[in-house]
Design the sequence.
């Protein structure tokens, strides 16, 4: 059984500490599925981007690591450019129950600033990083511009736009959340059913 | 609690990226458990000095091999006994919060039908000077009525942040969501020197070290350990690891609570240079050919977890958790108290448990890890059922 009390405490701590640049939203009624966002670290090709991460909590959490995966597409040696899978030790065998969702998200932020091409999740990106570094930088920056830039309007306004188009509020919110706030992708999703 | 299997999309090696990250918890409240993020209940102090709740410490252990402290990652092999000194001190310092934690834990224990040890205040504390005064009708300035500490716990409650809307629980739930902050200064007023005496010198603890048996000593009081293994001076139980670490959180608390007495103690010990007790060999350094590993089973005597080598199980104890001893503790005999709520008696019949998992301890053997993995997988299924009953 999931330790609900601990997860709630964690969420309150994230709420309290606005400066960390990390946020977490709950999806659905249980606490086992949520979505986190981190800001791209400055001085990196990810600067200015906001990255959404899918978070699933196993029932043995915090004694087992949370399952995390990038929803926002990102060009990085340790993150799959295909499906957002992450290669990070603390999300695997180096997890400790003293770590929290916030520290895990902050570690992902740190991973964005310090790629480890020697231990790649995405071999193509890693090879580019090692052999054509400047190409890597411009590709990563392009991906950040394309997929991770939030338009200036907030989530609520986006939802209202969809509601005006005739979609239900729940469906609009769900679609926007699952696409990391990308309106076009959300619309596609809503139209495809 | 088993190791999670890597999903098929992961192509990278499991553990090469290292994030040299401090695992310290966010919370700064004194005596918070960094696993459940609540006030520690029935505190277990690991050999490294970090404090966790009884059940949090138990669940954080690796069922198959040596465990690592969730905070500092130092390895350890023993599941320590509850630190009773800290348990009773906390129940005085923050009575209401501690009682609430007790009720919560009890509810969970009843659901799972496994129980932590029942703790009764020891005679040592009963004949301490303060208790004597109280019994005689003198209430000292140090002893504070129960309500006072409770007052601080509640004082800052009521400030509900947006996220607490998530708490769909009853009202007193809001407090334990961290809205109320534990106040070190107030905790310190509710206790006296008598709550923090060394098991060896009986004076106020200075640089406290909590041993595997749960007893607390001044670090200098453990310095004269003659053998390579550290044994508890009072109960003779072996300590986990070959060096002692002071419990920093308790030390800090003592320094703040009793500044005068603490500096007096510091002066007393200053003459001797303070060095951590250190020796070269592990207490269990006997890495001969092969040892049997009893996955997920700990020794109720010394706390070794999991048991390596011989294992004996009581056939008369009926508690779900069972009662087990390692070979050494079985041979030593005597009246061994369980680490949980077992009502084991010395006359209970014990049986040797047949070997289930062989763990070759030859580090250079090429296929040993493959063999080990295969063997672990074989036993994994029935073990997981067993383990899940505690973890869930
Ligand atoms: Zn705990
Ligand atoms: Zn530690
Ligand atoms: Zn002492
Ligand atoms: Zn002892
Ligand atoms: Zn033993
Ligand atoms: Zn028994």
Sequence:
């Amino acid at each position: 059984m999931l330790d609900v009390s601990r997860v709630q405490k964690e969420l309150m701590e994230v709420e309290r500490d606005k400066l960390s640049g990390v946020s977490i939203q709950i999806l659905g009624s249980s606490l086992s599925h949520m979505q986190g966002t981190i800001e791209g670290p400055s001085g990196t090709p990810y600067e200015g981007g906001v990255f959404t991460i899918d978070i699933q909590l196993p029932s043995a959490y915090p004694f087992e690591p949370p399952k995390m995966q990038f929803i926002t597409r990102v060009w990085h040696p340790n993150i799959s450019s295909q499906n957002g899978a992450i290669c990070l030790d603390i999300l695997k065998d180096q997890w400790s129950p003293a770590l929290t969702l916030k520290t895990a998200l902050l570690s992902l932020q740190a991973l964005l600033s310090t790629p480890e091409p020697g231990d790649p999740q995405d071999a193509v990106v890693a090879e580019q990083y090692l052999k054509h570094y400047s190409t890597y930088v411009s590709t990563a920056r392009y991906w950040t511009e394309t997929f991770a830039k939030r338009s200036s309007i907030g989530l609520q306004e986006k939802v209202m736009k969809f509601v005006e188009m005739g979609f239900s509020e729940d469906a609009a919110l769900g679609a926007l959340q699952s696409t990391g706030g990308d309106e076009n992708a959300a619309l596609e999703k809503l139209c495809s059913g | 609690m088993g190791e999670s299997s890597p999903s098929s999309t992961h192509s990278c090696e499991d553990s090469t990226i290292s994030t040299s990250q401090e695992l310290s918890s966010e919370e700064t409240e004194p005596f918070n458990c960094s696993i459940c993020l609540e006030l520690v209940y029935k505190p277990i102090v690991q050999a490294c000095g970090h404090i966790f709740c009884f059940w949090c410490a138990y669940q954080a252990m690796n069922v198959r091999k040596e465990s690592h402290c969730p905070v500092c990652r130092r390895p350890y092999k023993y599941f320590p006994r509850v630190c009773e000194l800290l348990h009773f001190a906390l129940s005085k310092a923050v009575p209401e919060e501690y009682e609430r934690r007790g009720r919560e834990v009890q509810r969970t224990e009843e659901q799972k039908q496994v129980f932590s040890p029942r703790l009764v205040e020891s005679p040592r504390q009963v004949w301490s000077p303060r208790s004597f005064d109280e019994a005689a009708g003198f209430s000292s300035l140090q002893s504070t009525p129960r309500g006072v500490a409770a007052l601080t716990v509640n004082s800052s409650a009521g400030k509900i942040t947006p996220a607490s809307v998530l708490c769909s629980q009853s009202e007193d739930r809001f407090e334990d969501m961290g809205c109320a902050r534990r106040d070190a200064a107030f905790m310190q007023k509710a206790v006296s020197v008598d709550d923090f005496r060394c098991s060896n010198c009986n004076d106020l603890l200075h640089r406290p070290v909590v041993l595997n048996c749960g007893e607390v000593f001044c670090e200098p009081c453990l310095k004269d350990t003659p053998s390579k293994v550290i044994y508890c001076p009072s109960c003779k139980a072996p300590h986990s690891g070959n060096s002692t670490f002071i419990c920093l959180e308790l030390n800090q608390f003592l320094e703040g609570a009793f500044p005068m007495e603490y500096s007096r103690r510091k002066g007393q010990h200053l003459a001797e240079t303070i060095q951590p007790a250190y020796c070269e060999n592990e207490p269990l350094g006997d890495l001969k050919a092969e040892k049997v590993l009893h996955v997920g089973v700990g020794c109720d005597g010394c706390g070794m977890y999991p048991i390596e080598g011989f294992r004996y199980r009581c056939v008369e104890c009926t508690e779900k958790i069972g009662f087990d001893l390692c070979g050494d503790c079985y041979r030593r005999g005597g009246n061994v108290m369980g680490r949980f709520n077992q009502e084991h008696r010395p006359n209970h019949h014990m049986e040797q448990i047949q070997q289930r998992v062989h763990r070759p301890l030859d580090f250079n053997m090429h296929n040993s890890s493959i063999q080990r993995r295969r063997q672990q997988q074989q036993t994994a299924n029935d073990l997981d059922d067993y383990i899940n009953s505690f973890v869930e």
Observations:
- Chain B touches chain A through 45 residues (CB under 8 Å).
- Residues 368-391 of chain B form the longest helix (24 residues).
